Amino acid sequence: MTEQNxxxxxxxxxxxxxxxxxxxxxxxxxxxxxxxxxxPLINDIGKHLINAxxxxxxxxxxxxxxxxxxxxxxxxxxxxxxxEFIHTATLxxxxxVDESNLRRGKKTANIIxxxxxxxxxxxxxxxxxxELMVETNSIEALSSLASASCKITQGEFQQIQIANKPxxxxxxxxxxxxxxxxxxxxxxxxxxxxxxxGNVEQxxxxxxxxxxxxxxxxxxxxLMDFNNSPNKMGKNLGDDFKLGKTTLPVILAWQKSNPxxxxxxxxxxxxxxxxxxxxxxAINIFNKYNIFNExxxxxxEFISKSIKCLEKLPDTEIKNHLIGLxxxxxxxxx
Length: 334
Known about the structure:
- The chain is mainly α.
- It has one domain: Farnesyl Diphosphate Synthase.
- It contains 17 helices and two strands.
- The chain has a two-stranded antiparallel ribbon.
- Strand 1 and strand 2 form a beta hairpin.
- Helix 2 crosses helix 5 and helix 4 crosses helix 9.
- The longest helix has 27 residues.
- The N and C termini lie close together (5 Å).
- The N terminus is likely disordered.
């Protein structure tokens, strides 16, 4: 992935951030205020991860969706803060489950404070997110994000069940990433439209935009394990491969592999018996079967669906940025 590609895919995010600057500042203030009211240790753990969490994409989507309906109330702010807390809680729990050492180039909370405190801090952030949702007085928004939270946990369970199994079906893979990643994207968008007064058709369109965008983002993330700039993206080449994670490139390659190649996948991913050249050998198999292009085509399909959903939302400058964000997300994999 080149630096130019990274700059391209950040362009619409930067434009959205500029358009919603005051709202984002209010979200940050809300997050800091809630953390400051917690125990000192929870405060430290929460701020450590939130400060390293990147572009605040999910809360940005919540604010962007609400802004299309000219909602200047505090409700989108509260929801966006809740979304960030949910996302941060899942990262805390993910790092414990995956036994991760680094996130975006920094030590993970579980390495600094231990698994017990990391899990409890994640639990606190989940609880805090529901408190924020209740304050919006919107049972529909609460229902949307609560449902997403449940599905995220289900997705985590299912991801563990398919780990180290390159023979996993595409159906099971998409069910996992749908729950684990795409649901929060969808609910983040839908809840913003709900509190801003959008009708049911617009709420569903916002959800579908976010859900399909989330699917595309996860596939691109899968691809970045084999092709990215670690200094820019905070993810090292081969991290998923070393853990034997079941990603889309692996599943597609398994389906096309000959018996000898399947033995390679069994040795490296199921048994985690990896040698220095195995990562390079995996990439050679991907190239042999044109796997990367196949993954990118699938990403483009989801992005196309995502953008089409925006037709039901008001024509605004924010909407144009959301279209750009979807289109440019594909650049992350190049």
